[in-house]
Design brief:
The protein is mainly β. The protein is built from one helix and six strands. Helices cover 4% and strands 36% of the residues. A six-stranded antiparallel β-sheet has the order 4-5-1-2-3-6.
Length: 91
């Protein structure tokens, strides 16, 4: 995938959370909530030049639930999101 976010935006791709509870109960797809966790795929040039940037490509992040614009590129669903809508980096 070759896409470059503009402005202060980040391109992320959702990853699936496990469909099993801690006690071992398997949840059907209809019972799962939509995840707001994703992997950073690309960072805009403007953000990469920022010395205070705390994220990099490959980081797993949590983002605001209704933030960003979902786009399908090469049959993959990705989200173009403003960097301010990123809430945390998963360690």
């Amino acid at each position: 995938m070759n896409i470059k976010p503009l402005g202060k935006r980040v391109l992320i791709k959702k990853f699936e959370v496990e469909n099993q509870t801690a006690s071992g109960i398997v949840l059907p797809d209809s019972a799962k909530e939509e995840s707001n966790m994703a992997e950073v795929i690309a960072i805009s040039k403007e953000l990469m030049e920022d010395d205070d940037l705390d994220i990099k490509v490959g980081d797993k992040v949590i983002y605001s639930k209704y933030a960003g614009t979902e786009v399908e590129i090469e049959k993959e669903e990705v989200i173009l999101i403003n960097h301010k809508d990123l809430l945390a980096v998963l360690a």
